[in-house]
Amino acid sequence: MRTFRPEDLQNPIFKIGMKFASVQLLRKAITEYSIKHRVEIKMPWNDKTRIKAHCDVGCPWYLYASFDSRMECFLIKSYVGDHHCQKKWVLKRCTAKWLANKYLDKFRADEKMSLTNFGRTVQLELNLTPSRMKLSRARRMAWNIIYGDEVQQFNLLWNYGHELRKSNLGSSFFLNLLDGYFSSLYVSFDACKRGFLSGCRPVICLDGCHIKTKFGGQLLTAVGIDPNDCIFPIAMAVVEVECLASWKWFLETLKQDLGIDNTTPWTLMTDKQKGLIPAVQQVFPDSEHRFCVRHLYSNFQGHFKGENLKNELWACARASTVTRWNQEMEKMKVLNKDAYAWLEKMPPNTWVRAFFSEYPKCDILLNNTCEVFNNYILEARELPILTMIQKIKSQLMVRHYNKQKEVTEKWVGMAICPKIRKKLARHADFSNTCYPIPSGNGIFEVHDREWQYVVDLMGKNCECRRWQLTGIPCSHAISCLKHERILEDSVLPNCYSIDAFKNAYGCNIYPCSEKSSWENVGGPEVQPPKYEKRVGRPPKARKRAAHEVQGPNGPRLSKHGVIMHCSHCGQTGHNSARCEAKKAGLPAIKKTKKPTRTATTTTTEPEQQPSYEVSHSQVCAQPQPYILHVQM
Predict the structure, then answer these.
(1) CA 133 to CA 139: how far, in whole Å?
(2) Which of 53, 204, 264, 416 has its Cβ near the most Cβ atoms within 10 Å?
(3) End-to-end Cα spacing for the chain
(4) How far apart are CA 391 and CA 410, in angstroms?
(5) pLDDT digits (tens, 9 = 90+) for 155-180
(6) pLDDT confidence band for 8 (50 / 70 / 90)
(7) How far apart are CA 535 and CA 532, in angstroms?
(8) Phi, psi at residue 454, to the nearest 5°?
(9) CA pseudo-torsion sign 551, 553, 554, 558
C-alpha cells in the first residue's frame, strides 16, 4: 500500500488502500484534486475519523476514507475515479486563503501585482475565473503573510529597536507612547550621522509626507546634500499629525542626536509646512532659514497669475547681488504693484540668493532633496510601520554599498565629484564672453557683455557672488583662471572632493537578525493609534495642482482659473446649461460680429473712423469677399 506524501499534492492521485499521515493532509489532497480537475467535490462527512466525498449529482466519482487503528493512519477504503460531470469555471474550494498560499512566492517577487494581472495568472495556470473580490482578499492575505499583521507590528518595535542598536552601534531609536497608544518614533542610523557630519555641508532640508496605511500618520524627514550634490538621508520620524509640537520634538531630537550646540553655521531649507516655521525659529534660532521658492510661487500664484509675473518672481529669487535684486524688483513693480507689495512683505534672506549666507557653499532655491527622498521611499510608505522602517533601512544599506562601489570602480583617478565637474565645465563654456583685464595681486576687471565685475583670485570671490555662494568658480572667475593658466579644479573647496565623498559614505549600515531571534526586552504593550474609519476608499495619490495634471500626450492644459461666460445672457460664473435667464424664457443677447478688415484700408482721423456696425440682413444680402488671414 502506497503512502501519500506532501510532495504528491502537486498532482494528487487516489487509490484504494492509500495511506495518509493525517486527516488534514487528506483534505488538502481533495482540495488540490478538485481545483486541478475543475470539479466541485463535496464532503458531507468530514470529521476527525472519517471523510466521505462525492462529485455533482449524476457523477459516479466517490471517495471514502477513515482512520485505521491497525496502521495508525487514514486509509482510503472506497474509491471510484470516473467523472461524467462538466468542468467548472468557478469552484468553492478555490478560496482566497488557498489562492494566497498558492501564489505567495509570486507576490514576494512582484509586490505591486495588480488584481487584473493576478486574475490572468490564475486563469492561465488553473483555467479558473474567481471573482475580483476573492482575488482582492487573497492578495490582502498574501500581503499579511509577507509583511506581517499591521497591529502586531507595533508591539515588535521595542525588540526591533534593541536589535537595531545592537547591530548598528550608535544608531538612535526613540519610541514614545501616550496612554499606551503609539505617539511618535525617531530613527537615525549611525552610518548616516557619521557620514553627514564628516563629509557633507551644514545644510539640512526638512519635509513631511503621508504614510499610506490604515492608521495613517506623517513621516518627517531630514535630508542633507552629499559632495556630489545628491541626497543624503540623515533621520526620520513617524508622528500622528504634522503640527508645531511634532516638528519641535523632531528638531530637538535631531539637534541633540547630531550634537549641535552652535546653530549659527547651519542652514535649514523647508516648505511652509504646518508648525514647521515656528519650530525652526525656536530650536534653531541663529540658523539661516530658507523657503522653497516653488512653494512660495504656489502661494503667489493664488493671488497673481500670469507667465510674466512667474518669470519675474524667479528672476528676483535667482539674483545673486543686492543691486540685481533691486533691478528685478523694479521690473516686478512695473508689471504689478500689488505683486511687488506682496513680495516686499517676505524677508528676502529666506528666498533671494543675494541675501544667502556664503558659509554653507550652497545656493539651492528648491527643497528638491526631500522631494526626491520621499519619492525614493514611496513604496515603503504603503507598508506597515515595522516593515516600512526595515525596507527604508535596506534601501539605505544598498545605497551606501553602491556609492562605495562607485568610487572604487567608476571614479578612479578623479579628484572632484562628477556632477561638480559638469557644473564647472558648463561655467567654462559661459566664459567665452568674458574678457579679463589684470590689475595685479590676483585681481582682475572682467567685462561680460554690458556688465563689469571685479574678481579676486586670492580671496576667491567675484562681485556676482556666485563663486562665494557655491564655492564653484563662476564664468568670470574661470576667465581669470585661464588668463593665469590655473586649473579650475585647484580652487574648489574640499567639500566637493572625492575624499569628502568617501568620508560621507565610508560607514556601512549592517543588517539585523531574523525576527524570531530578536531579544524580548519586555517593553510595555504598544497599541496602534486610534483608527477612525472614513467614507470611501483611502486615497493614496497626492492631489495635484492644475498645472501638474498629465494627459495621454504630456501635460494637459486645464481651464483652472478661467472666467466662464454664459453664451445666452453674457454673465460670468455659469454657462448656458445653468443659465437662469434661459430657463425663465428670456431672449438671448444679440451678439455683435467683429468687423472684417479688407485688404485696402483708409487712413482717417480718430473722430472720422467709419462705422463697422451693419445689420444682419445687410450682411446676408451683400456678397462677402474671400479674405485669407495670415498669422505672422
Answers:
(1) 10
(2) 204
(3) 95
(4) 27
(5) 999 999 999 999 999 999 999 999 98
(6) confident
(7) 10
(8) -110, 125
(9) negative
Question: Per-residue b/e over 44-81, b at no fewer than 16 CB within 10 Å?
Answer: eeeeeeebbbbbeeebebebbbbbeeeeebbbbeebee
DSSP per residue, 35-97: HHHT---EEEEESSSEEEEE-STT---EEEEEEETTTTEEEEEEEE----SPP-SS-TTS-HH
Q: Is 584 exposed, middle or buried (0-12, 13-18, 19+ CB in 10 A)?
A: exposed
Position 471, amino acid:
G
Using alpha carbons only, what angle is made at residue 587 by residues 581 and 591, rounded to the nearest 5 degrees?
A: 105
Backbone phi, then psi, for 180, in 5-degree steps?
A: 85, -10
Spatial contact of 210 and 559, defined as CB atoms under 8 Å apart: no
Report the distance separating Cα 310 and Cα 308, nearest Å. 5
Residues with Cβ within 8 Å of residue 375, at least 6 apart in sequence:
none
What is the rounded CA–CA span in Å between residue 454 and residue 446? 6
Q: Residue with C-alpha cell 468530514?
A: 46
SS3 226: coil
Mean pLDDT in residue range 318-340: 94
CB 202 within 8 A of CB 266: yes
Question: How far apart are alpha carbons 21 and 29 in whole angstroms?
Answer: 12
At residue 173, what are phi and psi to the nearest 5 degrees? -150, 105
Helix (H, G, I), strand (E, B) or coil at 203: strand
- Please check whether residue 230 is in contact with residue 370, taking contact to mean a CB–CB distance below 8 angstroms: no
Q: What is the mean pLDDT of residues 445-453?
A: 92
Phi then psi for residue 146, to 5 deg, are -75, -50
User: Cβ-count burial of 286 within 10 angstroms (0-12 exposed, 13-18 middle, 19+ buried)?
Assistant: exposed
Sheet holding 50-54, edge to edge: 19-20, 73-80, 62-68, 50-54, 42-46
SS3 173: strand
**Which of 275-284, 391-400, 452-461, 539-548 is predicted least confidently?**
539-548
How many Å apart are CA 526 and CA 523, to the nearest integer?
Answer: 8
Residue written as grid cell 510532495: 7
The residue behind cell 589684470 is 438
Number of residues assigned to the chain:
632
Distance CA 353, CA 144 (A): 50
Burial of 373: CB neighbours in 10 Å, binned 0-12, 13-18, 19+ = buried
